[in-house]
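Chain X:
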Amino acid sequence: MLIVLHMEGNMSIYEKLQDGINDSLAYGIETSKNLLKKAKETASEIEETGILKLDLRRLNSRKKELISELGIKAYEAFVINGRKSLTLTSGGVPGILNELTEVDKEIVEKEEELKKT
């Protein structure tokens, strides 16, 4: 036995239900898109922060190497060569000091960039 009820009011309820489902799906899709966009932005910020921190570690490591080189130059001058002084123009010292100054500038720049993230 098949009973078919055809009421004009039922169609209106069906349409309202369908519209509600469509609205809910559209809202869910839009929300998912927004969440994905925010996740991508966050991942990009984390990546940028990681790169800056890696650059800072590399620069600080280079700074320590340069300071060690300077110390070696001083040791060689005073202990090995018996000199009583070391000047800014002594062999190799100006180059080390110039590079050390540049590395210090880069460190300050990277630290400023890191503060902005």
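Chain Y:
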Amino acid sequence: MEQKELFVFHALLAEVYQKAFGEQLAPLSHGKAQTLCLLIHETTGELLDHKMLHSFAAAVIAGDQTAESPSTATLAILAQFAAGDNALGNGRHEMRMGAYAAWYKYRSRALTRLLAA
């Protein structure tokens, strides 16, 4: 994962964590990872694996650029959750144009903030 992508993913994960738990981003325990997946599912209608979220959070906190990057679908689901979008019926299984729009909008805003700073 490139440095700018890691920055954007860190910002997204921190926003998701803040929205879910009202705390700053910290390593995800097993229970918190499961709770986060449930909250994401209730909001977006999409399922994410708690082990995958745990691994991504650990990599982001450590700043590990060699860790496996999340898929665009995963990023879109996290961005939908951060935005509070209820996307039931508009899931990743419907391969149509715009399925990942939430992620690209989030990425664009985050990079704009980075460049403005």
